[in-house]
Amino acid sequence: QIRGDRDVFFGSGHPSRVLMFPGHEYTADLLLRQLDPSNEHHGHWTKLPPAIFFETAAQYFISSHRRTLPKNSRLLTVPSSLDREIKTNPHFRALKKRGEHLISA
Q1: What's the CA gap between 26 and 76, in Å, rounded?
Q2: Which residues lie below 8 Å from residue 22, measured CB to CB, with a gap of 6+?
Q3: How far apart (Å, rounded) are the C-alpha atoms in residues 42 and 52?
Q4: What is the pTM of this model?
Q5: What does the DSSP 8-state code read for residue 2?
Q6: 20-63 residue pLDDT tens
Q7: In terms of Cα–Cα distance, which of 95, 92, 93, 103 is closest to 5?
Q8: In sequence order, which ranges of the chain are alpha helices (DSSP H)?
Q9: How far is CA 36 from CA 11, 44, 47, 61, 89, in A?
């Protein structure tokens, strides 16, 4: 039985249901770095669908808000779904692109 390319790359769990639990809590910093005009990769937004930019910007504002709440009511920005990480994390986007390239080879 041959599974679809997406199943081979992501495994049996759908990316929106697979949760990521990174060992750090600097989501806002990583997202802001992507949106910073002084970042060497800042111009890459023109090569991506607008939905990716808006998802990244939205996640930055959400995580920044959660981290700036008063200490006793601060919310974590993790876990995140694999699907969201693929959209907002440039390293995951590159990994996905390389995986798709390998599958199609």
Answers
A1: 10
A2: 78, 80
A3: 13
A4: 0.68
A5: P
A6: 877 666 778 888 888 888 887 766 777 888 998 898 889 889 88
A7: 103
A8: 5-10, 27-35, 50-68, 82-88, 90-104
A9: 34, 12, 16, 14, 14
